[in-house]
Structure formats: structure tokens, C-alpha cells
Design goal:
single chain; elongated; mainly alpha; 2 domains; 149 residues; 6 helices
């Protein structure tokens, strides 16, 4: 009888311990998760800054890796996508740069640098008719963006 009572109390203590741990995790985990999200967004911004610094220093490989990591954390970051598109454009990969710019156009269609870079991609591909139609397209998107948004 004594062994049975001690086993019951031991099991009860274990259940209480597990319940206490669960309640602690229930309170702490959301706080930790929010801190993690803050650090991820901070890391995205820091990676973007280090990529810009890498481009200024001529370290294009490191800059492109940091931009890729930044876009891994936040795939719709407009600044990171524009920077990656610019790097692709500098290396003559106009088609992939245009695909990147399509993502940015969905997020911010009124962006002037976006339309400038799209025009330069078409110019690099020697599609001069498309280049000549872009100023009117960009001015209309900027104009309508102010009234719609």
C-alpha cells in the first residue's frame, strides 16, 4: 500500500510538473516567436545593407548571396528584389531581371526606379519599341496609383 501511494504521488507530481512546463511554454513561446520575427526582419534589413555595401566595394558575389538570403527571409521585399534585378541586369541577364521586376510591379506599380530598370532591360535586349512605350505606361501607373490607392 505504501509503494502504491508513493507511485501515485510521484505520478501526480510528474503531471503537475508537465502542466507547469506546458503553461510556461504557453506564455513564453509567443514572446520568443515575436522576438524571432523581429530578428528575422532585422536580419533581412542588415543583409540588404551589407549587399549594398558589397556592391559599392565591388564584391558582387558576396552582395548577390546576401540579397538571396534577404529574399529568403522576406520574399516580397521590394528593395531587395530591385537590387537583385539591378545586379542581374548589370551582368546581362535581362530576362531573369524582368521576372524579378514583375514581382515588384505587383507590389508597387507606381515606382519610378522600377520602370526605369524595366526600360533599361528592354534597351539591353534591343527592343526599342517597348522602350519607347514605357514612359507613357509609367506615367499612367503613377497617375492612377495616387487616385486608386
Amino acid at each position: 500500500m505504501f509503494v502504491c501511494e508513493s507511485v501515485k504521488s510521484c505520478v501526480a507530481k510528474q503531471h503537475l510538473f508537465l502542466y507547469d512546463m506546458y503553461s510556461l511554454c504557453y506564455r513564453v513561446v509567443p514572446l520568443l516567436f515575436s522576438k524571432y520575427l523581429e530578428s528575422v526582419l532585422l536580419n533581412c534589413y542588415l543583409l540588404l545593407l551589407s549587399a549594398v555595401f558589397g556592391v559599392q566595394q565591388g564584391e558582387y558575389q558576396m552582395a548577390f548571396e546576401h540579397l538571396g538570403n534577404s529574399m529568403t527571409f522576406e520574399p516580397t521585399n521590394v528593395k531587395a528584389i530591385l537590387a537583385a534585378g539591378c545586379m542581374l541586369q548589370l551582368h546581362g541577364d535581362y530576362d531573369v531581371a524582368l521576372i524579378k521586376y514583375r514581382i515588384v510591379a505587383l507590389e508597387t506599380p507606381e515606382s519610378g526606379p522600377l520602370w526605369n530598370n524595366i526600360g533599361m532591360c528592354f534597351y539591353g535586349k534591343k527592343k526599342y519599341v517597348a522602350v519607347s512605350s514605357l514612359p507613357s505606361l509609367s506615367s499612367r501607373s503613377c497617375f492612377w496609383g495616387h487616385f486608386i490607392g
